[in-house]
Amino acid sequence: MSAQIIDGKQIAASYRAKVKGEVEAFVAQHGRAPGLATVLIGEDAGSQVYVGAKHRACEEVGMVSFGHTLPASTPTSQIEDLIDELNADDRVDGILCQLPVPAPHDGDALSQRVSADKDVDGLTETSAGRLALAAPGLRPCTPRGVMVMLDELGVDLSGKRAVVVGRSNLFGKPMAQMLLQANATVTMAHSRTVDLPGVCRGAEVLIVAVGQPEMVKRDWIAPGATVIDVGMNRTDRLVGDVAFDEASEVAGAITPVPGGVGPMTIAMLLANTLDAARAAEARRSAAR
Ligand code: NDP
Questions:
Q1: Is 30-115 in CATH node 3.30.360.10?
Q2: Cβ-contact 79, 107 below 8 angstroms
Q3: With the C-alpha atoms ordered 20, 26, 31, 35, is the resulting torsion angle positive or negative?
Q4: Rounded Cα distance, 150 and 183, in Å
Q5: Phi then psi for 222, rounded to 5 degrees?
Q6: What architecture (CATH level 2) is domain 141-262?
Q7: pLDDT, one tens digit for every residue, the chain (288 residues)
Q8: Does any ligand 1 atom lie closer than 6 A to the CB of residue 190?
């Protein structure tokens, strides 16, 4: 059997086109474009590339972006003041503090300072609490992107056995919550899981985010399972956490790396910024 290769680039492109249309409608209704502010600290080349891609993506869908680049030597209190200003700025709907931040700054503490209503990365304690309670709120981009992907594939998660390998706050935990809310029967696996291959073989939907190149082998996968590979590992090339060639002989559908989950993340950042802008306008109109 040969798996369906899930084309994340194509799904992300059509999602971005949908967001673009919705941004046009938002501008027509509210007379302004949704705004995303980025805070980049230091000169990490990878972070500069990521932030640049986020600004370009905003422009493509008609959103405005506000870039703030600060040297690593900036006092933490000054970065906190900037985040406070952005929290209070009505033109800014989403705030993204690019991680990792250089020492001595604490990326988690800075992320927590972002107002939950502008937390387009979905990383604040309030956003995590809203997700756990299935309350409205902004969700972390990558797991949201996986849910969009599964929906596009027509996977009905209700009652399905889903296994998430990896339990990070950034991905694994919110992913498991989202699957649970879609009525899947969810198992979370991690580095202490006993018989990880056997646990994975029980999955109808297997989602892997561990950061271990090609760890998941062919015999870890149930025939016909949907396999979502979130891992991004640089070896001599970019590879995922799943041994793609052998896994695609068994899986029903599988994401490649690159070109699978990766492109979904920025598309969901745009979706979150638009959601935050709509919620801000709804609050303003309720206050009038
Ligand atoms: P973390 O390092 O924060 O978490 C890794 C998780 O994997 C931990 O829960 C850890 O378990 C578990 N783990 C590590 N080794 C093993 C193992 N041998 N067996 C079972 N579980 C293991 O990573 P992230 O969640 O931030 O990222 C994971 C991967 O996903 C990375 O490759 C990252 O680059 C990629 N990623 C890609 C994104 C995208 O946009 N495509 C976005 C986010 C992440 P324990 O808790 O027990 O230590």
A1: no
A2: no
A3: negative
A4: 13
A5: -75, 140
A6: 3-Layer(aba) Sandwich (3.40)
A7: 699 999 999 999 999 999 999 999 999 999 999 999 999 999 999 999 999 999 999 999 999 999 999 999 999 999 999 999 999 999 999 999 999 999 999 999 999 999 999 999 999 999 999 999 999 999 999 999 999 999 999 999 999 999 999 999 999 999 999 999 999 999 999 999 999 999 999 999 999 999 999 999 999 999 999 999 999 999 999 999 999 999 999 999 999 999 999 999 999 999 999 999 999 999 999 998
A8: yes
Atom of ligand 1 nearest to the CA of 212: 15
**Pocket of ligand 1 contains residue 212 by CB under 6 Å:** yes
Give 86 Cα–ligand 1 centroid separation in angstroms: 31
CB atoms within 10 A of CB 283: 10
- The structure tokens 């018989």 sit at 195
HSE-CB of 202 using CA atoms within 13 angstroms: 14
CA of 4 to the centre of ligand 1 (A): 25
User: Where are the domains positioned within the chain?
Assistant: 30-115, 141-262
The backbone torsions φ and ψ at residue 201, rounded to the nearest 5 degrees and listed phi first, read -65, -20
SS3 260: coil
State the DSSP code for 121: T
Cβ contacts of residue 122 below 8 Å, gap of 6+? 128, 131, 137, 138, 139, 140, 141, 144, 174, 272
Q: Which residues carry out catalysis?
A: 54, 98, 121
